[in-house]
Amino acid sequence: MPKPRTPRVRAPRTPPVNLAHVRDAINDLDKRLVELLNERSRFVVQVGEFKRAQGLPVYAPHREVEVLQRALARNTGPLPAATLEAVYRELMSGSFTLQQPLRVGFLGPEGSYSHMAALRHFGSSVELKGIADITGAIEEAVRGHVDYAIVPVENTIGGGIVETLDALRDVILHAGRREASICAEVQLGVRHALLCNGKPTQVQRIYSKPEVFTQCREWLRLHFPKAELIPTPSSSRAAEVVAKETAAAVRKKSAIVSAAIGSELAGRLYGLHTLFARIEDKPGNVTRFIVLARQRVPRTGNDKTSLVFDLADRPGALVGVLRAFASQRINLTHIEKRPSGRRNWSYTFFVDCEGHRDDRGLQKALKQAGTHCKDMLVLGSYPRSTRIL
Most buried of 52, 178, 243, 341, CB within 10 angstroms? Predict the structure, then answer.
């Protein structure tokens, strides 16, 4: 016998959306949002008046952390957390301008990863100033010519950024110019692109920052083993150079042989096409930036402290420093060394550790460690970055 047919159950039809009504509702919400944002801004102006009267800095990294954490904790969706964070960062950027215009220095020109980090962290309402090199950016923060300077300090592929470490050693530790300190850190996801308006087979020269070449070493070895790698102070400077060489080649009706490795933002700014995207050797490539300013930051409960020191010239000095932190159960999260620049085979050490300089345990460790050093300086205590921008 044939099996009886199972009756087909039809899913209930979703009533059609009345698009006009939905758009009217969005318009009403937009009106309320603008009103609420301006109401919030009026309180921001009052905060600015108080800060100016008390001589307090406009940008408070610990307060920024509180605001963002509270907003993200209240988010129940469907808006992604990254979108909400971007909205709040831009809102805080506008708040800075209402309280007092801020000037932020970065490794320029525009289109560098430092530029991207400054935009994503401080927003587009602050004044951004591109500076020719990292040493110059730190110098400007020390002198107070910019309110904040943001510079790269470490990368997950290439390790420590040599120019930054050397500038911190020379400008702040050895020169004794200690007006500026680290007040925040920023993590930026880095995606490298090969930028060029010619064909891949034409490329003979590739420009970029040395650290960028390190982060793309294997990809370059496989795809452009014969290309000349030419270092530049920043990846955006590389894009700028290639744009000029490309324009000259077009005028002379010759082949375009130059390319740059940098951000796709740099490509758009300087009129270069992306030949290949995401050419970094390892996924999850992240660069950590530090923000320097003439201010200190109070404790948040999730802080990091950076310090730099030259060891005393005697056996066991480094062991003594490490034991000082171990005795207080303080975790050292990063250790880097660079030649001291004073005499051969002597070194300057850079250390990041958990905790704040005002914590009692860290104070004891620093005091004990200092007895094993010729010179020791806390570069800053600041909120630990927990999100990648």
Answer: 243
Strands 258-262 and 205-208: parallel
CA distance 76 to 202: 51
State yes or no: cis peptide before 339, omega within 30 of 0.
no
**Contact between 160 and 154 (Cβ < 8 Å):** yes
| Residue owning tokens 């120019």 | 163
Provide the pLDDT for residue 4. Answer: 59
CA 127 to chain CA centroid, Å, is 17
Strands 159-160 and 148-155 turn out to be: antiparallel
The length of the chain in residues reads 389
C-alpha pair distances (Å), 52 with each of 58, 119, 219, 270, 341: 8, 25, 52, 40, 41
Domain with CATH 3.40.190.10 in the chain: 54-190+284-296, 193-279
Give the count of beta carbons closer than 10 Å to the beta carbon of residue 130: 19
For the chain, what is the mean pLDDT?
Answer: 91
Q: What is the pLDDT of residues 137-177, one digit of tens each?
A: 999 999 999 999 999 999 998 899 999 999 999 999 888 77
Does position 382 have pLDDT exceeding 90, yes or no? Answer: yes
Q: Output the six-digit token pair for 62.
A: 């610990």
For residue range 321-372, what is the model confidence (pLDDT) as tens digits?
Answer: 999 999 999 999 999 999 998 888 889 999 999 999 999 999 999 999 999 9
Give the tens place of pLDDT for each residue, 36-92: 989 988 988 888 888 888 888 888 888 888 888 888 899 988 989 888 888 888 888
Class of domain 193-279: alpha beta
Tell which CATH classification among 3.30.70.260, 3.40.50.700, 3.30.750.24, 3.20.20.450 matches the domain 299-377.
3.30.70.260
- CA 203 – CA 226 distance, rounded (Å): 9
So what's the pLDDT on residue 9?
A: 60
Where are the CATH 3.30.70.260 domain residues in the chain? 299-377
| pTM reported for the whole predicted model | 0.84
**CATH 3.40.50.980 for domain 54-190+284-296:** no
CA angle 159, 165, 171 (to 5 degrees): 170
Rounded to the nearest 5 percent, the helix, strand and coil shares of the chain are: 40, 25, 35
